[in-house]
Design brief:
Shape: globular
Strand content: 15-25%
Radius of gyration: 23 Å
Number of helices: 15
Bound molecules: adenosine-5'-triphosphate, magnesium ion
Low-confidence stretches: none
Structural class: alpha+beta
Helix content: 40-55%
CATH architecture of the domain at 198-275 and 309-345: 2-Layer Sandwich
Distance between the termini: 31 Å
Order of helices and strands: EHEEEHEHEHHEEHEEEEHEEHHHHHHHH
Mean pLDDT: 96
Oligomer: single chain
CATH topology of the domain at 198-275 and 309-345: D-amino Acid Aminotransferase, Chain A, domain 1
Strand order of the largest sheet: 2-3-1-4-5
Length: 417
């Protein structure tokens, strides 16, 4: 029997938690048999950063990137291996710049999604560029910040066009707060966005063809933000949240991304969905962490074994045609986008592959999570994250939530067998 070996590269920043879990589950999974009986073996390595010739051949067949959003040398390497070497990347490095929230807002507004009203205002401070003074004097039009905010209505949010981790985000309730926030925005480029008065905050994490919708509580400390709460949305709103996340991802060619939506009544408003390096920390995902790691292993193995080719072309016109159909309702458009997303993610083929070639991965994951392996990781992660006097508290907190997943997952597997 022929064996194909695949090398997965991890391009990492400071994280140790999910990479260790990923490496361990992949190792335990062992060889996978593809359709037609071919045998596939997987190796996983952490990528180092070094000079590269643009014609050098990379050793990797698939790369999971967590670094390029701030480190530009590996970002350019990703573009090179995508363009020249057909390496499979989970997130297209060409639309990655849409990590700017701005482009992502524009795209989804164009498709008719209920993104709150948003205005981009010019920089508060002069740019550090010798051409700026002349250009600004000649072309920058004076503008009335109060009038813009008044037209949007209070409260509103001021936040950077390329945000992340709440940097520079403020909720504005009055003209005085508006001016204070704008004055302190300095060299950051800011959006003003109408605040949504929401009933539920849904944060969905998508990994390939799978999406997990989680109840998010942004006002709580990090470790309590994802609440373990199933069915917190109506079936209709839940389905819409999933479709929106998958649409964003299919549109931009992202396969590892999170999407924040604010649900007010039956209306679903996406507000932040360009997170091509989504939070998958054990300390924040807790209960959902095993699902995330398993989905990541499954998607990588699926892509490699089936020879899935990365698509650099976004085929935006196919979405715009749907958007521009004046006779179609919002619901009909969403359904049509959902079909494009399913086609992009090969959802049926993925599910079939998981049921046949990866039938044992649920047991493998449960076994590892329930055993000492994850517990060691949990302890190491807590020690690396929190001050000493909080270790016991956080270890107990995380053990409780991971234990809850183990109980739920055991029950699910028993019911399925
Ligand atoms: N239009 C809005 N209406 C209501 N709340 C909002 C709105 N925009 C932002 N927020 C609140 O502000 C928070 C931060 O905004 P946003 O997610 O856009 O910034 P971020 O820097 O990407 O944050 P993170 O990295 O946590 O995702 C949101 O989680 C939400 O609680
Ligand atoms: Mg956010």
């Amino acid at each position: 029997m022929t064996t194909t070996r695949h090398l997965i590269g991890l391009l990492l920043g400071t994280e140790e938690d999910w990479p260790r879990a990923f490496e361990e589950i992949l190792r335990r999974l062992g060889p996978v048999t593809g359709t037609g009986g071919t045998r596939h073996e997987f190796d996983c390595e952490r990528i180092t950063i070094e000079p590269f010739g643009l014609r050098d051949k990379p050793r990797y067949h698939l790369v999971i990137d967590r670094l390029a959003y701030w480190y530009y040398h590996p970002r350019e390497w990703l573009k090179k291996i995508a363009l020249m070497d057909n390496v499979y990347l989970l997130n297209s490095p060409f639309t990655f710049q849409s990590m700017e929230k701005h482009a992502a807002y524009c795209a989804m507004m164009r498709l008719g999604l209920k993104v709150p009203q948003t205005v981009l205002v010019p920089y508060k401070n002069p740019l550090d560029n010798s051409r700026y003074a002349y250009t600004a004097a000649k072309y920058n039009r004076p503008f009335d910040l109060d009038a813009i905010a008044g037209a949007i209505g209070y409260p509103l949010f001021m936040k950077p066009y390329d945000g992340g981790a709440w940097r520079g985000v403020s909720r504005i309730g009055s003209p005085a707060e508006l001016h204070a926030a704008y004055d302190s925005s300095g060299e950051m480029l800011m959006h003003l966005q109408k605040a949504v008065d929401y009933d539920a905050f849904a944060r969905s994490l998508s990994i390939g063809a799978e999406t997990m919708v989680m109840h998010f509580q942004p006002e709580r400390p990090m470790h309590l933000r994802y609440e373990v709460h199933h069915d917190f949305l109506s079936p209709q709103a839940g389905a819409e949240v999933v479709t929106i996340g998958r649409l964003v991802n299919a549109f931009f060619r992202w396969e590892f991304n999170s999407c924040e939506t604010l649900v007010a009544g039956d209306e679903v408003h996406p507000i932040d969905y360009a997170n091509a390096c989504p939070d998958v920390a054990l300390t924040s995902l807790h209960y959902y962490f095993p699902w995330a790691i398993r989905a990541l292993v499954k998607w990588c193995v699926f892509a490699l074994v089936t020879g899935r080719r990365p698509k650099l072309d976004t085929e935006a016109d196919r979405y715009f045609e749907i958007a521009d159909d004046a006779s179609a309702s919002y619901e009909q458009k969403l359904a049509a986008y959902g079909e494009l997303a399913d086609a992009y993610f090969e959802t049926d083929r993925y599910q079939e592959f998981c049921a046949t070639s990866l039938a044992h991965i649920d047991e493998i994951t449960l076994d590892w999570v329930a055993g000492p392996g994850l517990d060691e990781l949990l302890i190491d992660t807590v020690r690396a994250t929190y001050p000493a006097h909080e270790h016991d508290q956080f270890i107990a907190h995380l053990r409780g939530l991971v234990g809850l997943w183990v109980a739920d997952e055991s029950a699910r597997l028993r019911a399925a067998s």
